[in-house]
Amino acid sequence: MIEFSRFELANGLRVVVHEDSSTPMIAVNILYNVGARDESPDKTGFAHLFEHLMFGGSANIPNFDEPIQLAGGENNAFTNNDITNFYNVLPSENIETAFWLESDRMLSLNFSKESLEVQRKVVLEEFKETCLNQPYGDAWHHIADMAYKVHPYRWPTIGKIPKHVEDATLADVKDFFYKYYRPNNAILVVSGNTTTAEVKALAEKWFGAIPKGAVIIKNIPQEPKQKQLEKRTKHAKVPIDALYLAFHIPGRLEADYYATDLLSDVLSNGASARLYRRLLKEKRLFNHIDAYITGNIDPGLLIIEGKPAEGVSMEEAKAAIWTELEELKQDLIPEKELVKYKNKVESTLVFSEISILNKAINLAFFELLGDIDLINREKSLYQEVTIKDIQRLAKTILVKENCSELHYIAERETEVV
């Protein structure tokens, strides 16, 4: 049970406090309600670019790492399809350093051509390293493009193509910042050795005077139901062939989300999971096989990915997966098996609550979802999933007309005689 208090500043900044006197540390986390899904199709990668730009200095702080390190702490950030999140962990007596850092860059980021060029190069280099030069690195570009036709999940967080970041102007950057990086589009969570009274005073002191931005009305198009199998084959310089199957699943706030998560565990979570045990360990058709969900706020994907063993054709490997999926639809899984996966999920959730940083990040996310109390109800929602729920979802989700199929075919080097 995570206890917390909430309040809101006049400028719309939502603040959540979790008091924990058992630790000498404090986590200060700020979530901005902007991710890749908020970008324009012709200007993708901006949310990720901004994650980097926010470390490029502000009016009073040319270097963000130095002050936090001098205060005995560390900071970092991440971006995904739905959010951008910045966090700081430091000794609680230096809590005000984190408030100073985060408020200064929210108020007055350093907009300069120099900063933009530096961070642009960093992002473009990351694009090259992770997507263009890494085996299977562009898999998500293909999967998202096949699975989504209208929803902005159709491009990955890093962007659709490098050119969008290459062409970003200082005016583009300023427009994006003043639209999304405003207090009324942010959630501040403080977790650790503090009190709500202390956080209220610090929040008013450092964030209270920052002007609110315009109210953002999100008109994100709903992805229509997929009606036919999407297929794509890519011949590439990869070590071995690879297969990806992507299925549309419920969004984060839908009732069937928890059963879908457990369905992915039944397929491939641990050595006794079905795909791993039967196709890798017993039949030795794969060198690697996995299944997982994306966990997006809007309807996401369940991904099955596998690398066939040497001598196993792509068609044989794919047929073996579909055979397992069909069996799962026909035969009820044993109660003991489902209980095992429920217990695994519960232990993961409990473990995630040990860290003050994880608690801060999770509280911010659930506050964004509009139901912060859900953080304490999730364990029971997983426990309520039934065997019939798993089978019902297998029958409706794991079907070919709901699938996007990507094949990587390894290019064979021509032997020189």
Topology:
Blueprint: E1 5-8, E2 14-19, E3 25-32, H1 46-53, H2 65-70, E4 74-79, E5 84-91, H3 95-107, H4 113-132, H5 139-147, H6 162-166, H7 170-180, E6 186-192, H8 196-207, E7 230-236, E8 242-248, H9 257-268, H10 274-282, E9 286-293, E10 301-308, H11 314-330, H12 335-352, H13 356-369, H14 378-383, H15 387-397, E11 403-410
Parallel strand pairs: 2-6, 7-11
Antiparallel strand pairs: 1-2, 3-5, 3-6, 4-5, 8-10, 8-11, 9-10
Helix pairs in contact: 1-4, 3-8, 9-15, 11-15
Based on Cα principal axes, name the global outline. Answer: globular
Helical segment tally? 15
Strand adjacency order, main sheet? 1-2-6-3-5-4
Radius of gyration, Cα only, in angstroms?
Answer: 23 Å
Total beta strands: 11
Low-pLDDT runs: none
Mean pLDDT over the full residue set: 94
Query: What portion of residues belong to β-strands?
Result: 15-25%
The percent range for helix content is 40-55%
Rounded to the nearest angstrom, the distance between the terminal CA atoms is: 68 Å
Largest sheet: 6 strands, mixed
SSE order, one letter for each helix or strand: EEEHHEEHHHHHEHEEHHEEHHHHHE
Quickly give the structural class.
alpha+beta
Can you walk me through this structure?
This protein is of the alpha+beta class and 417 residues long. Helix content is 41%, strand content 18%. The protein contains 15 helices and eleven strands. A hairpin with a 4-residue loop joins strand 4 (74-79) and strand 5. Helix 3 (95-107) packs parallel to helix 8 (196-207). The model has no long low-confidence stretch (mean pLDDT 94).
